[in-house]
Every structure is written in structure tokens, then in C-alpha cells.
Amino acid sequence: MSELDRRTVLRGTIAGALAATSVAAPTRTDAAPLAARTSGPPPIAARRDGPTAADWKALERGLKGRLLRRGEKGYRKATHLFDPRFDGDHPRGIVRAANAHDVSEALRFARKFDVPLRPKSGGHSYVGASMFSKGIVIDTGGMDGIDYQPGSKRVVIGAGAELGRLHDRLDRHGRTVPTGTCPTVGAAGLTLGGGIGAESRMYGLTQDAVVDMQVVTADGKIRHADAHHHKDLFWALRGGGGGNFAIVTHLTMRTFDAHRVGFFFLSWPGHDAVAVIRGWQQRLRHMPRTSWANVHLDANNGSISPRIVGLSLTGDGHHEAKALIRAVGRNPSSVSYAQKSHREAMHLLAGANGHQRQSFVAGSDIIGAPMRTPALRDLVGVVRQRSRHGGGASAILDPLNGRAGRPKVSSSAFPWRNALASLQWYVGLPHPSPKAVKAGRTWIKHGHRAVAARSVGAYVNYLEPGRPVRRYYGKHWKKLRRIAHKYDPQGAFRSPYSIR
Ligand SMILES: Cc1cc2nc3c(=O)[nH]c(=O)nc-3n(C[C@H](O)[C@H](O)[C@H](O)COP(=O)(O)OP(=O)(O)OC[C@H]3O[C@@H](n4cnc5c(N)ncnc54)[C@H](O)[C@@H]3O)c2cc1C
């Protein structure tokens, strides 16, 4: 697989690609204030002497799912995240939870013996935040049920349901939820950070579709968070990032009409790169919310190539493509179109190799307002520089406006409603040697510097080592810290990337 293919997979852009279980709706347990509105066993009395072999056995006996310990069959595979770079991490135990009760048992065990913990669902964290070598991983990946309820047009999703399966299931009913594009990303991890994708301008972020979350809080209690119960927690869980406030076990989401999709693919020569981004920025202001388009600036083998991948959910895409070309003011070197059913479209966006594990380094900036020509020149210059040194990389701009930009900034923890776009810096690493990782990271740092004047923050679903955590949360930082302290006073969810 070429490096370009890998990048294509990541953001679902198509260059080369042109050519269950069911789950019962979780029961509500939280119709009262924090202390009383719970179910489950009594408070956790912490011990400092660590778990014995008998304690681990007792944990195992209490689970409907599995406990995997070092050396056991299935353990090694269970440590694998999407990025093989993290394969060396070996936790003391992995609880493959079958239900919320298992999550509660595992969490109480970790708290009781003061063992650090990490929640996991799809395993796509950019920094490997869902795996470590210290304590216990509470893996909700097996809780992958998808139960569509035609009457209410809602879907109840297990935390570990993969996006590809979710779309396949909903498409049978002509329904969709706006998600990111990678088919194996987990529902919980994506939603907790926001969820940006090709249907975001039409239907909002993934988190905007959520009406209820079943969670296990740090005290081991199973709760529901929604617009009426644990409102502050519900607010924080939508955009506040994975692994911070509670472990999500189920999500209930509204669904939307799944439309046929008219794709368009536009490419320009490298010397038009500034004009392409400038035109795209201008067009975004007038683009109907039924359309979506992102920009890719790819560095490859000494050259750079700007391209736009776009779609219309109500037409064939020709009108929007022409409007974009007019806004860019330069004739593209290549234009193509494709009409797809919604299901085909989700597969196309997923990329031909979307299921394959791969190594990469990446990071992000949130672009607050349109970048002026000097800033655009700097951005293009950084990509050009990478290409001159023979390296592959992409800068990918995704729109944050349309329906995704409509809710008030204060309506959830996602802080970037008023921003123009997320800018992802991505370096595929077919051979992830320490030198290649370091070079990729250095390039991303140069990228941050190039757009510093227009960057207002970073996207929490694209975590990056070495960046201050508060950069992901904008003006919501203090409120999120207060909520984290309220629901997790002892810091059970503390990690290098957590809010606490
Ligand atoms: C190939 C690829 C494509 C992507 N495409 C997009 C995209 O189009 N749009 C977009 O918005 N994002 C995208 N992402 C980013 C992705 O949304 C985040 O990496 C997300 O956090 C991954 O979730 P996960 O469950 O798969 O990962 P995990 O590694 O399992 O979890 C991510 C974080 O959430 C925590 N967590 C996991 N499960 C739970 C739980 N049940 N309760 C509480 N916390 C939990 C973990 O501890 C970790 O901190 C992409 C990532 C990759 C690798």
C-alpha cells in the first residue's frame, strides 16, 4: 500500500478509490441527585497493598465478559490498538467487558487496589491513550450492539460499536448518524471528542445526535446522563474527550435520513495551492449545508498536490463543484464525479484499506477564521518543505460550519462551534522508526508555527504528545475541570492526556 493510500484511508478521501449483535436499551437508574441517583454496590474502600492472584481470580469470577492477563491466550491481540507503534504496551489485566456491570466491577477493582486504569473502545487514539503498561484496561470494545428502534428513529449503540458496522446497520432502514469516516473507530471514543465527518454540515457533529449516555462513574455506579439527569456530566461528555469523566457503556442517538451522495473530486497543480485553500475558505461561507467539501494538501515525492473532495446530499455535486472552481479562480487539472447510494458512499469514504492497522503521527490546529494570503503561503510552504525532503504528509482542512457550527458554544463541551475548520497534520509511517517518528513530529511542529496566528486550539480527537491539554478545550477548560473533580474526586481517570 502506498503512503498516499494510507492517508486516503485516514480521512476518507478517495483519490485511488474512485475508480451484531443487538443490545437491549439500557435501563434508567438515575432519576435523582448525584448521591442517590445511582445503582450498584456500596462505596469503594481503597487498599494500598495491591491485588493478589486470588483478588484477580475473584474479579474474573464476577465478570460476564473476560479478564485477560499477561501470558494468557488472547491477551496479546487484546493489547493491539489501531496503530502498531503501541504494540509494546502490556497492562496487568484487560477486562473485556460484556456489559455495564462488568465495567463497574473492573472500575471498583482498580479503585480498591489503587491500580491505574484506562478505558478503551475502538483503540484509535492517536497517542495510544487507551493502552498502557501499568494497570488495568477496561475494554468496552466487545459492547458493540446496535439496536435501531424504528418507532422513535433512535439507535442504542454499545460503546465499542464500530462506525462501519453502525452505518451498515442503519442503512438498512434508510437512516444515518453523522460520524467520522474510519470504519473501525469506536462509537464512544469518537463521540466523546465531538465527531467530525462528511455529514457534519448537514446533521451536526456525532455528539449532537446523542440524547442519552449510560456511563459508569469513578465510584463504580451506573448512571444515565442526558438533558435532564446529570446535566453537567452530559454537557462534559459531548466534546470533553475520552477517558475523562466516566466510562461510557451505551449511547442513544437520534438518526437522520440517509441520502444518495453526489461526490466530486477536484485537483490542481501545486502552484495553485494558495488559491485553492483561499477559494475553499470563501466558498464555505455560502455553501449550502447539504454540501460538504474538505481540502487536502499532499506532499509526495518532491511535489505537492492540492485537491478538494466534496459531496452533495441532495444533488449530483456538479453545482457545488462549479461554485468551488469559481471561488478558486483557477481551472483544475482534473475533475471527476461519482454517484453513490448512501451505503456505497460510507464505504468509499472509509477507503479500500480502512480496516487495516497502520502507523502514523498526526496533530491538529483549529482555524478560527479564514487565513489570509501570507498565512496560506506559510502553510503551503511547510508542506512543500516536507515534500522537498522526500517525505510524504498531508495537511487536511475539514469544515466546522453548517449544522456543526449552529449550536451555541455553551451548549456542550465542544469548544469550536464558531471556528472555520479543523486542520489536521498527518504523516503516514509505513516504517515507523524512531527517526521517522521524530521527523514527522518536527514537521507537525513547523505546521503549528506556520498557522499560529490563526490557530485557536486543537481537536481533542487528534491528541498529540507535548501539547498542553488545555489547548483542546478553549474557554471550557475551567468548567470541565470542575466537572471532572465532581465526578472523579480521587482522580481515577487521571492520565497524561486527561483534564485532571
Ligand atoms: C484512521 C483514523 C481515522 C479517523 N477519522 C476521524 C474522523 O473522520 N473524524 C473524527 O472526528 N475523528 C477521527 N479519528 C479520531 C478518532 O475519533 C479518535 O481517535 C477517537 O478518540 C478514537 O476512538 P476509539 O474508541 O476508536 O479509540 P480508543 O483508543 O479506544 O479511545 C480513545 C480515547 O477515549 C477513551 N475511551 C475509550 N472508550 C471509552 C469509553 N467507553 N468511555 C470513556 N472513555 C473511553 C480512551 O481512554 C482514549 O482516551 C480518526 C482516527 C483514526 C486512527
TrEMBL record:
TM regions (residue ranges): none
One GO MF term: FAD binding
Keywords, comma-separated and alphabetical: FAD, Flavoprotein, Oxidoreductase
Pfam families: BBE, FAD_binding_4
Flavoprotein listed as a keyword: yes
Cofactor entry: FAD
Chain segments annotated as coiled-coil in the UniProt record: none
Stretches for region Disordered: 27-49
Matching PROSITE patterns: FAD_PCMH, OX2_COVAL_FAD, TAT
Domain FAD-binding PCMH-type: 87-258
InterPro entries noted in UniProt: BBE (IPR012951), FAD-bd_PCMH (IPR016166), FAD-bd_PCMH-like_sf (IPR036318), FAD-bd_PCMH_sub1 (IPR016167), FAD-bd_PCMH_sub2 (IPR016169), FAD-linked_Oxidoreductase (IPR050416), Oxid_FAD_bind_N (IPR006094), Oxy_OxRdtase_FAD_BS (IPR006093)
Family, as annotated: Belongs to the oxygen-dependent FAD-linked oxidoreductase family.
Protein name (record): FAD-binding oxidoreductase
Organism listed in the record: Solicola gregarius
